[in-house]
Amino acid sequence: MEPNDFNSADPVAWCPGCGNFGVQAALKAALAQLGKEPRQLLLVSGIGQAAKMPHYIKANFFNGLHGRALPAAAAAKIANRELTVIVTTGDGDCYGEGGNHFLHNIRRNVDITVIVHDNQIYGLTKGQASPTSEPGMKTKIQPGGVILAPFPPLETALALGCGFVARGYAAEREHLTELILAGIRHKGFSLIDVFQPCVSFNKLNTYEWYARRVYKVGPEHDAADKTAAMALAAQRERLPIGVIYSGAKPSYGELSGLDGMPPLVDADISNVDINPALADFR
Ligand SMILES: Cc1ncc(C[n+]2csc(CCOP(=O)(O)OP(=O)(O)O)c2C)c(N)n1
Ligand code: SF4
Ligand SMILES: [Mg+2]
């Protein structure tokens, strides 16, 4: 497969220069290397600029409510574990409006890959602070600057026992491609938080801002060492990108016994009569 095999016919409505283009290119390259057909993939999203991604990639997709991508993705994977299920979501969508789903789907550990386009702002709604906005950043809604400490996605995921925690940068496409592939190949919930400059509304966290801070995690980091992972995730001056943590953990399919059974999508429902159940709702 080639990246262009995943081109969609939909016109792209992102601003020129948006970091989302880098994430899109990395995702298409990763899917090409994975070698699966578009029909074997499911992209799931909620609402936001990041959540438009499934429109711009040729694959099955489900575009649902703001913050609600994760339960839909987990349910689809449980029903049809042959599908490769990938969520493309924003920092607001995943950590704010969908924060509770984020916490409990890490615990649930269904085998899905979650790519968070972390532009540290609400892009679609034109520039309000998001859960990951820097303190002091001024917006139209926060004219005196953000006063809250940011939500720490990597540390939160590690504290909840997430089996794969990574961070990428939209301008480091080949590096991000490798992270996405590693996340897809990990069995269980995998988180890839991606720094994604929003050139129209985030005038603080620009390409130049990230270039001064982002660095690649070197081979000296042992991604199986959770204490070392937590120390990396806690860095605030320099910002590490790479696989922060990777470790085996029983997935939902293994814990529930579903992995040993035929997938729900293949179940024989010819003898199932749902009318009595529906009657309860009349
Ligand atoms: C429940 C709900 N709350 C608020 C909104 C309005 N809304 C739509 S997108 C959005 C913010 C999106 O920000 P983010 O998830 O970071 O995505 P981005 O556009 O930055 O990629 C908001 C607040 C909504 N659609 N539904
Ligand atoms: S508003 Fe920001 S996040 Fe949305 S498309 Fe434009 S640059 Fe990208
Ligand atoms: Mg955002």
Tally the structural domains.
Answer: 1
Termini Cα gap: 50 Å
Work out the number of β strands. 8
Give the proportion of residues in helices.
25-40%
Count, helices: 10
Strand ordering within the main sheet: 2-1-3-4-6-5-8-7
What's the overall average pLDDT, rounded? Answer: 97
The fraction of residues assigned to DSSP E strands is: 15-25%
Oligomer: single chain
CATH topology (level 3) name: Rossmann fold
Strand and helix map with partners:
Elements: H1 20-34, E1 41-45, E2 60-63, H2 69-79, E3 84-90, H3 91-97, H4 99-108, E4 113-118, H5 153-159, E5 164-169, H6 173-185, E6 190-195, H7 207-213, E7 214-216, H8 226-233, E8 239-246, H9 252-256, H10 275-279
Parallel strand pairs: 1-2, 1-3, 3-4, 4-6, 5-6, 7-8
Antiparallel strand pairs: 5-8
Helix pairs in contact: 1-6, 3-4, 5-8
Keywords:
282 residues, alpha/beta, Rossmann fold, eight-stranded mixed β-sheet, 10 helices, globular, binds thiamine diphosphate, binds iron/sulfur cluster, binds magnesium ion
